[in-house]
Amino acid sequence: MANLTINGKTFTLDVEPDTPLLWAIRENAGLTGTKYGCGIAQCGACTVHIDGVATRSCGVSVSEAAGKKITTIEGLASGNALHKVQEAWIAQDVPQCGYCQSGMIMAVAALLSEKPKPTDADIDEAITNICRCGTFQQVREAIHTIASA
Amino acid sequence: MNKHVSPRMNRRAFVIGTAAVGAGLAIGLDIPFGGPAVVRAADGSPEIGAWVVVRPDDTVVIRIARSEMGQGSLTGLAQLVAEELECDWSKVSTEYPTPGQSVARKRVWGDFSTGGSRGIRSSQDYVRKGGATARVMLIQAAAEAWKVPASECTAANSVITHTPSGKTTTYGKVAEAAAKLAPPADVKLKDPKDWKLIGKGVKRLDTAEKTTGAMIYGIDVKLPGMLNAAIKDCPVFGGKLKSYDEAKITGMKGVKKVVKVGDTAVAVVADTWWQAKTALEALPIVWDEGDNAKVSSESIAKWLTEGLDNAQPAYVGNKNGDAKAAIAGAAKKIEAVYSYPYQNHATMEPMNATAVYTAEKCEVWCGTQNGEAAFAATLEASGLPAEKCDVHKVMPGGGFGRRGQTDYVRQAVLIAKQMPGTPIKLLWSREEDMAHGRYHPITQCKMTGAFDADNNLVALHYRLSGQSILFSLRPEALQNGMDPAAFQGVAQSGEAAFGYSVPNLLVEHAMRNPHVPPGFWRGVNVNHNAIYMECFMDELAQAAGQDPLEFRRKLMGNHPKHLAVLNAVAEKIGWSTPAPKGIYRGIAQVMGYGSYVAGAAEISVTDGNKIKVHRIVASTDPGYVVNPAQVERQIAGSFVYGLSALFYGGCTVKDGKIEQTNFDTYNSMRINEMPKVESVMVPSGGFWGGVGEPTIGVAAPAVLNAYFAATGKRIRSVPLRDQNITFA
To answer: Minimal CA–CA distance to B409: which of B469, B342, B362?
Structure first.
């Protein structure tokens, strides 16, 4: 059993303590917006915020995540108001297949909360998610659009 | 093959034919087409022809048979229909008919296959006619209600106007009446100059859900009572499952069942996938690996190298003059050998499918590039007839050719069949996905070029040795044993024609098929052929002491469309002016999938082995551009995929197995490694070329040629990872 606080809600989940947070979120909490890509913290598809920090949830166990504030893509918006990164992603048609974009958006949202006006170098350093469709150009442009708003 | 297939559909029927017939699938047979005169969508709204549903509130649903996998053709295809329909674009949504529905209606939606950059170009005629047919019927219905000639009525933005009287009505109001009309026998399509929506970079129709986590991919499918399966297939291709010790995992939490899947694989079924995967890893498995366990990258390379020897048999794909004689008598000649490795598609979402089986019904939910092939696989694996099966397509997390194959669908059904009534979601781990790809084929190429005393290229011998995709996946498409697709980009004519005139030319393929299964991998055979030809073209230019662009231009007089895109990138990158200090340029062109493309790169190199790509310019002439915003994204994305392949993409074989297991050993480009791609679209009209793949062909050779310009060193083997060359 693990108690997790996800998107402001407390979940009591019947999982082993070493279960990766990713799978507890997807399979036990039923929030499938967070994606599995590699399971070894390489690709970033499973990025969530833990206490506001962008974290690859496949590499964190539920016991490590217990008691912390977890935010997934489903919890990024405030009620019906989308987060500015989601709005920019829609306005600039960033996603192609979209599978990596939950993680990409979470990584970008964390970057912007830390550095509201990131330089290209900041983006290069902070955004290390894999996108096989190759949306990097649109990702970069959308970040700059948000920063200049 | 099937007398009930309409003649127009025969060629397409053939595509799924072999798999389907084996499973007893009779396309369009025995399933009554009749029913009510008006065909209704699930919500009761009437169809106006198979492609369009109009609701009373004027919203329009456009049917899409091809698969969206990120490439944007769902939106592009809807634009094609809406252009002719003259409907209000802001009220358009789309839906997929299922392959089962299509088969039951004599394949009214045509081919579902989404590969070879065919989504738009192979459907454009009949989907536009679908839109036009519906428009004619809607106008006719309004005209009949008004008792006026239809010729006095026009439609725009879902509003029908009787011009003489000024009366108007809307599509929603006349839809019921229109649905009862007989469709016109023939419709005239608009002249391209009159297009209003085609050619506009309208926003994609499927973006919002991809930003909130709401989009359902195959991995996200949930059904009541569903269990989850993890699978291991014999890691040596062609090997078999010998035994497993189920007792060792009995009692592990959540585990429900351990099942054999065909002759080669074992799956653990559990409450959650994490439980299934954990138990599978703890399961002792014995494989019968067979003789293929002796195969290695070294043994494959040796076998391919033997095929470069002219004494070995080879298929001739393109020929004029007498290249061998001209080379023998030439004033000067150069020779080079290149090679290209196996590569995994590595879609972000690993392969998966959800299946539920009973004796009465088998249904599958999956991301697929070919709904009909998935349907045929479902029939074959379930043993049920067509009317008892269906496939529901969901969003795939990337395709790139991998999801045109149906191995994962077959596995899901075979597991579900052993647990009747229980929905089973099969998900491959990334490691399984790396181990069981359908890999970019492996090849080598020896090229010999010969010059006369004035440094004119008089002969070229292009000898490929290596794997044929069609031999493995579509043997019926071989031509007397030859794989015509092996010559993509260097073919005599057709949609991937060679762009140079060489007086004595010999292009041939010594086919060698190792045991590693090949597949269609974004760009397919264009990828290696473009590297071989375009890098060697630079070597020839160097040997002739000429500028690489000028050298090409002299050979391209008879290939104006190839030349036009090459000129377009040359101009945009500023080829005629010196590059900034420390920056070096490379250029390349190729034709593939009916489109003419060229690329140019500007790079710098530090320490001889650290590359920074500063600029990329890419041009394409696909005939028509349906949605320039999406074409731009496809071009940029193809460079990310192509340069990832160049720098990182290599799958090596040891003991008959693929050695790479995950993104740590099979890397992919990140944002810091990728510059902006400057797209130059030069659609010249009159033909329909593809978009998703062609430009990938020029990504690698443009950078490799720039690397030579920077260092004087030719790289003739991919990936750069294995040459100790990295991104700066």
So the answer is: B362
Please give the single-letter amino acid code of residue B105. Answer: R
Q: Which of B220, B350, B637 sits opposite A134 (nearest CB)?
A: B637
Look at residue B153 and give its three-state secondary structure.
strand
CB-CB neighbors (< 8 A) of A37 in chain B: 348-350, 430, 663
The pLDDT confidence band at residue B262, using thresholds 50, 70 and 90, is very high
Whether A23 and A81 have beta carbons less than 8 Å apart is answered as no
Query: A138 by DSSP, 3-state: which?
Result: helix
* Residue B210 touches partner A, C-beta closer than 8 Å: yes
Give the integer Cα–Cα distance in Å for B619 and B679: 6
Q: Whole-angstrom Cα distance, residue B523 to residue B423?
A: 36
Hey, of A122, A133, A135, which one would you mutate to test binding to chain B, going by the most B CBs within 10 A of its CB?
Answer: A133
- Give the best residue of B348, B612, B662, B663 to mutate against chain A (max A CB count within 10 A): B348
Q: What is the pTM of this model?
A: 0.95
Task: Please report residues of A whose CB lies closer than 8 A to that of B69.
Answer: 97
Distance in Å from the first CA to the final CA of chain B: 56
Contact A133 B640 (CB under 8 A): yes
CA B349 from chain center: how many Å?
16
Separation between Cα atoms, residue B154 and residue B133, nearest integer Å = 14
Look over chain B and give the mean of its residue pLDDT values, rounded to a whole number: 94
Q: Which residues, 6+ apart, have CB-to-CB distance to B279 below 8 Å?
A: B230, B249, B252, B254, B255, B268, B270
What are the pLDDT digits (tens) for B462-512? 999 999 999 999 999 999 999 999 999 999 999 999 999 999 999 999 999
> The tokens of B718 are what?
């991919």
CA distances from B229 to B258, B280, B413, B426, B578 (A): 9, 9, 11, 5, 59
Segment B630-642 shows an average pLDDT of: 98
- List B residues 376-405 in contact with A (Cβ-Cβ < 8 A): 395-400
Mark yes or no for CB contact B633/A42 under 8 Å: no
B320 interfacial to chain A (CB closer than 8 Å) = no
Chain B, residues 15-74, CB within 8 A of chain A, namely 69-72
Task: Could you list the beta-strand ranges (E) of B467-547.
Answer: 504-511
Dihedral in degrees, nearest 10, Cα atoms B203, B205, B209, B214 = -170
B231: closest CA among B432, B410, B516? B432
Say what the ipTM of the complex is: 0.99
Q: How far is B644 from chain A (nearest CA, A)?
A: 9
Distance in Å from the first CA to the final CA of chain A: 44
Nearest CA in chain B to A128: B670
The CA distance from B651 to B637, in Å, is 21
Is 70 exceeded by the pLDDT of residue B9? no
- Give dist(CA B481, CA B496) in Å, integer: 20
Distances (CA, A) of B671 to A109, A123, A124, A141, B676: 16, 8, 6, 12, 10
Q: How many angstroms separate the CA of residue B440 from the nearest CA in chain A?
A: 16
What pLDDT, on a 0 to 100 scale, did the predictor assign at position A1? 85
Supply B254's token pair: 């959540």
d(CA B580, CA B568): 20
pLDDT at B597 over 60: yes
Which runs of E-coded beta strand occur in B530-643?
584-592, 595-606, 610-621
Are the C-beta atoms of residues B671 and A136 closer than 8 Å to each other?
Answer: yes
Per the CB < 8 A criterion, the answer to whether A55 and A64 are in contact is: no
CB B653, CB B659: distance < 8 Å: yes
Please classify residue B472 by burial: count the beta carbons closer than 10 Å to its beta carbon, then call 0-12 exposed, 13-18 middle and 19+ buried.
middle
The answer to whether the CB atoms of A16 and B253 lie below 8 A apart is yes
Residue B35 reports pLDDT greater than 60: no
Q: Dig out the tokens for B458 from the structure.
A: 């008089």
